[in-house]
């Protein structure tokens, strides 16, 4: 969170400005700007500033500024394997993460051919019939951020001697 404010004039000059978040002092600055970090997503914070003069008492606190942080925007979906070969009847767990790490980690899974392989809401692929399908793994909060896993399903090898 980046804050800035107008300079104030005091006889004898300004030593620094003190910044408050939710009623508690969080630091001082010589200039008229302050960067606050380590904030929680989707949370409202209240900021105030006061001037500390070189001589005399500090100014009263400024009017309160209420700011709500945004959610971290997903930028990519990552999977451990971009392709997998299975045999009919096999299962495979897709492990997905969303970047950056602060973004919502919930994803959705869809199969382009459920006749070939199905995928559960938790990413468990079940091979149904020989063929190929694409599993799309998308960010739940931003579906345009997605990746795919190519699934090839083979028929089981018949036992020797048959």
Task: Give an overview in words.
The protein has no helices and 15 strands. With 162 residues, it is mostly beta strands. The strands form five sheets. The chain has a four-stranded antiparallel β-sheet with strand order 3-2-5-6, with no helix packed on it. A four-stranded mixed β-sheet has the order 8-15-14-11, with no helix packed on it. The protein is rod-shaped. Residues 1-72 form the Fibronectin type-III domain. This is Fibronectin type-III domain-containing protein. Pfam families: Big_2 (PF02368).
Q: How confident overall, as mean pLDDT?
A: 94
Low-pLDDT residue spans: none
The CA-CA distance between the termini, in Å, is: 70 Å
**Percent in strands:** over 45%
The coarse silhouette is: rod-shaped
Number of helices: 0
Rg is 28 Å
What class would the helix/strand composition place it in? mainly beta
Topology as a string of helices (H) and strands (E): EEEEEEEEEEEEEEE
Count of individual beta strands: 15
Helix content: under 10%
Strand order of the largest sheet: 3-2-5-6
Main sheet: strands, sense, barrel: 4 strands, antiparallel
